[in-house]
């Protein structure tokens, strides 16, 4: 451990104990080191972006100073914070590529026709209904059978089928609303 490592740790201990001059000296000594680290990791980035990362790091050191183990050297702890702040800054910046949609409109156009996922999505939603409701909706909607055929299959009269269908559709609508919330 070098002398500056010992100085940083001693100044942080003094700063935590209330010595404002030692704490100010620590931050003053830390800033150029952090600038070098950020610039090395973010080569080619805007200097203002780098300075924002340095300031974020100094602020994090200040806010989290109570979590530092004073028996350990300060420098590795500060470097870990700087590394995380650099990663966070890159994530915030992102790597967005903007292309005009008009250039790809013909290639992206969907074919006319039914949605290939519609039946599977409807089936998963219907499967969440109670047994008779699910069987009724599966017969009428997914299998596209008629009222008479589904009524005979499920042992229901035409009037009973209409009432059961109405109730099943209400339950289905409630499930759909719950999914949106």
TrEMBL record:
Respond yes or no to whether keyword Transport is given for this record: no
* Molecular functions per Gene Ontology: DNA binding; sigma factor activity
Please give one Pfam family short name: Sigma70_r2
Q: Where is the signal peptide?
A: none
Source taxon at top rank = Bacteria
Q: Which GO terms describe its biological process?
A: DNA-templated transcription initiation
Q: Which residues form the RNA polymerase sigma-70 region domain?
A: 28-95
State the Gene3D superfamilies in the record: 1.10.1740.10, Winged helix-like DNA-binding domain superfamily/Winged helix DNA-binding domain
Keyword terms: DNA-binding, Sigma factor, Transcription, Transcription regulation
Q: SUPFAM superfamilies this protein is in? A: Sigma2 domain of RNA polymerase sigma factors, Sigma3 and sigma4 domains of RNA polymerase sigma factors
Q: Which family does it belong to?
A: Belongs to the sigma-70 factor family. ECF subfamily.
What is the protein named?
A: RNA polymerase sigma-70 factor, ECF subfamily
> Native species of this protein?
Gemmobacter megaterium
